[in-house]
C-alpha cells in the first residue's frame, strides 16, 4: 500500500522527468527554429492559458489586438491573395480555450440563450449547408469556403464569450474604456499619416493599407461615442465629455482623409441620427448648415477631388469605355467595376437561387448584400437580414427600457452604429471585415447583456441593504466609547 510520502515522491519524479523532456525539446527547437516562431509559440501558450483561466483578460487582449496587431501577406482588390493577422491567431486560441473549458466543466456554458440565437444559428447553418453543397458540386474551393465560414463562426463566439462572462457594470465599463482607448490610439496613428499625403489607414496594414476598413471602424466608434454623449448622465464628468467630443472631432477629420466613399455614405445616417436624438436641435442644425456652407472653402483638395472623380468622364477612350452610366450619371472606373460585378452577381443568382453557390464559391464581389445572396441564396439572405433587423430591434429595446444611463448610451450607439454599418455594407463587405466585426460583436454583447447586468446590480444593492438591516444597532454606550 503506497504511503502519502511515496505518492508525493512519484508525482515529483513525474514532474521532474516531464520538465526535463520539455527542456530538451525546447533546446532542440530553439537551435532549429527562428526565434520569432519561438516567441510566437510561447505567446500563443500564454494567451491560451490566460483565456482558459480568466476570460476577462482574454477579452482585453482581443480588444487591443484587433486594431493594433500586425498583418502579414497581401490581398488584391480582386480578392486574390492571403492576409494573416496576429489577432486571427489570438481569436482562434481564445475560441479553442473556451471550447476546451466548456468541455471539461459542465457548469461552464459556451452558448447562453439570447434573443439573437435563432437568427445566428440559422445563418451559420445555411452557410455550412450551402458551402458543403457547393463543394460537392465543384463550386469553389471547399477549404476556402470552410475557413470563411469558420471566420463568421468566430465572430459569434466572441459575442457569446463576452455575454457569458459579463457579470457587472464595472466589467462592462472596463471593456468600453478599453475599446475607446484603442480607438484613440488608432486615431492618433492615422492622424500622423495625414501630412505624408495619400489615404490614411489603420496601424500595421502593410504597404497598401485598407482606408475603407479604417473608415468603417471609425464610423462605428463615432456612433458609440455619440450614443454616450447624447444620453443624459451616461458620461457625468465634464472632463470625460470634453475628451469624447475631442475624439469625435479627430475621427471626423480622419474619416475625410480616408477618401472612402463607402465611409462617407455611412456617415450620413450617423449625422441624421445625431440630429434626431439631439436635445439641442437648433444649435446642431446651425452648426451643420454653417459647416456645409464653409465646406467648399475648408474642405481639403484631396476630398473634393475624390468626390468629383466619382462622376468624372475619363478622357482616355479605353477608360471611358469601362465607365458605367446609370440615370444619365457616369461613374468612375473604380465604381464602374463594382457596378459590373453587381450586374454579374444578379445574373448568377438564378443558377442557384435557394442556397446559393456556397461561401466563397463564386467570384470575389465587394458588396455585402450581393455577396450573401449569391453565396447563400434566398435562405441565407433572409436569415442575414433578419439577424440585422433583430440587432436593431434589440438595441432600440435596450435603449428604451434600460435604466442605467451608461447602458442606455451604449445601446443608442449600437443602434446608430448598426444603421451606419448597414449603409456601409451596400458597397463593401462590411460584415466580414475583422477590424469592424470584432468590436461590433463586443459592443453588441454588452448591449444584449444589459438586462443581466442591471439584474446583477439590483441583486447587489439588495444584498447590501439586507446586510445593513442585519447589522445590530449600537446602543448609546457603544457610540460614546467610539467617540472617546
Structure characterization notes:
This protein is mainly α and 484 residues long. The protein has one domain. The chain has 19 helices and four strands. The strands form two sheets. A two-stranded antiparallel ribbon has the order 1-2. A two-stranded antiparallel sheet has the order 3-4. The longest helix is centred in the last third of the chain and has 34 residues. It is globular and about 90 Å long. The termini are far apart.
Oligomer: single chain
DSSP E strands, number? 4
Mean pLDDT: 80
Gyration radius over CA: 27 Å
Count of helical segments?
19
Shape: globular
Distance between the termini: 65 Å
Give the topology.
Elements: H1 4-32, H2 35-53, H3 55-68, E1 71-75, E2 81-85, H4 86-104, H5 117-136, H6 142-164, H7 169-191, H8 211-230, H9 238-257, H10 261-277, H11 281-298, H12 301-309, H13 317-322, E3 325-326, E4 329-330, H14 333-348, H15 368-401, H16 405-424, H17 434-448, H18 450-470, H19 476-483
Antiparallel strand pairs: 1-2, 3-4
Helix pairs in contact: 2-3, 2-4, 3-4, 3-7, 3-17, 4-6, 5-6, 5-15, 6-17, 7-9, 7-17, 8-9, 8-10, 8-16, 8-17, 10-16, 15-16, 16-17
List keywords for this structure.
484 residues, two-stranded antiparallel ribbon, 19 helices, 73% helix, disordered N terminus
Summarize the structure.
With 484 residues, the protein is mainly α. 73% of the residues lie in helices and 3% in strands.
